[in-house]
Amino acid sequence: MKKIVYIIPVFAFAIASCGGGETETTTTEDTVEVCTYSYDSSKTELTWTAFKLTEKIGVNGTFNEINVVAKDSAADMFAVLTGATFEIPVTTLNSQDPIRDGKVKNSFFGNMDSTAFITGVVNSISAEGASVSVTMNNVTKEYTGVVTVDGETITMTTTVDIVDFNAQESLDSLSVVCAEKHTGPDGINKFWSTVDVAVKTTLIKNCK
Predict the structure, then answer these.
(1) What is the pLDDT of residues 152-170, one digit of tens each?
(2) How would you label 103-126 residue by residue, b for 16+ Cβ within 10 Å and e otherwise?
């Protein structure tokens, strides 16, 4: 695995003596710092934005719990997350509206097959992008995402389409129970099938 190495250059200075013009040279050995990264479950959050109405108005939310199994540590920050698996209890959905949350849990996820959890795996991740497989309603779909890095913080964003998971029935059910909130001035009851998702995690960096 690739190591992140910081090399501190040390310069040797020649100092002429006062009497005989002799040169005294002092040298020190190079210092090599080796860093490793590890996963911190307390520093991971998932946020989502669903859309309603013809005007495509965003509704933001999160899941209060996301369980990730990642490598213990690695010299490459992306290697920590490559192959990581995740499990999200749908009961922890939180849109800051308890009434809406209940409708989503019961009418949306409740109409799916075996979806007490959304599960998945990080197939690959680098600064150039990521590939993640997501399983919901007994259907697995692979998505690519955009990756940004800020220090030890890695963020991946992607767009999930609910229709990919054979969940049109769940969407229709949610549209019925949320008709009042999903019907705009044009009289159209609209709930978009695409959901924007962002996952952000901050790794622990240890250097010796």
Answers:
(1) 999 999 999 999 999 999 9
(2) bbeebbbebbeebebbbbbbeebe
Tell me which DSSP letter residue 2 carries: P
Domain that holds residue 151: 40-203
Is there a domain that residue 164 lies in? Answer: yes
Specify the CATH number for the domain of residue 102: 2.40.128.110
Query: pTM value?
Result: 0.81
Phi and psi at 171, nearest 5°, equal -65, -45
What DSSP letter does each residue of 81-127 carry, written as one string?
HTT-EEEEEGGGEE-S-HHHHHHIIIIIGGGSSS-SEEEEEEEEEET
Instruction: Decide if 197 is inside a domain.
Output: yes
Model pLDDT for residues 108-125, shown as the tens digit of each residue = 999 999 899 999 999 999
